[in-house]
Design a protein that fits this description.
With 208 residues, the chain is α/β, with parallel strands linked by helices. It is built from 6 helices and 15 strands. It has one domain: Rossmann fold.
Length: 208
């Protein structure tokens, strides 16, 4: 799967085991997800460009750096919110947009019920955050919506990915790279990722 990048790190594997455990309570789930998101943020932004900025140390003037490009985090409501704080810990200057999408039961077309983005969407690197890339339905719809709003550089960030979802993103949006910590086995008959970790949104917000 050429569009998929798996982020390998011992700390990610440790924390992913905590998230998969059904005995992990909501508080530990949230704090672990935030921690794993921070590690992911390091890897996903390795190729960001910098510009020089002079810095005055206590002893002398020296050369420092700031990001040369803007980063916008766009969580897919509601589960994507669980990744935001971890990314902001590493990229505090990032701006945050939001997108909420559901599928119309009659037309089967995706409908956005809420969206709000920074005005710099067109010139920024957009990180679309959704912990689960399962069927790829909501993910591809969110990418399409972002492109319609002017986004040109989009990366899809998921905690877990299923082959079906990765394939769908690649077929509809071949220009979008997918980043995940693991490629799980498959989807079950209800569209849940196996082995997965259950419903991420429910486990984040305690609505099981």
């Amino acid at each position: 799967m050429k569009n998929l990048t798996i982020i390998e790190h011992p700390l990610i594997k440790r924390d992913l085991s905590i998230l998969r455990n059904k005995k992990t309570d909501n508080h530990l789930f949230r704090s672990t997800l935030r921690r794993i998101a921070s590690v992911m943020a390091f890897e996903i932004t390795r190729d960001l460009t910098l510009k020089r900025k002079f810095v005055q140390t206590p002893l002398e003037r020296t050369t420092g750096y700031v990001l040369a490009e803007e980063v916008i985090l766009v969580p897919v409501l509601r589960a994507g919110l669980g990744l935001v704080e971890g990314f902001l810990d590493i990229i505090p200057e990032a701006k945050v947009g939001h997108v909420g999408i559901y599928r119309n039961e009659q037309t089967l077309e995706p409908v956005d019920y809420y969206s709000k983005f920074p005005k710099t969407l067109q010139r920024s690197l957009v990180l679309l955050l959704d912990p689960m890339l399962a069927t790829g339905g909501s993910g591809t719809a969110a990418i399409t919506f972002l492109k319609q709003k002017g986004a040109r550089r989009i990366r899809f960030v998921s905690l877990l990915a299923a082959p079906e979802g990765v394939t769908k993103v690649a077929s509809i949006h071949p220009d979008v790279r997918v980043f995940s910590t693991v490629l799980d086995r498959k989807l079950n008959s209800r569209g849940y990722i196996l082995p997965g970790l259950g419903d991420a949104g429910d486990r984040i917000f305690g609505t099981e």
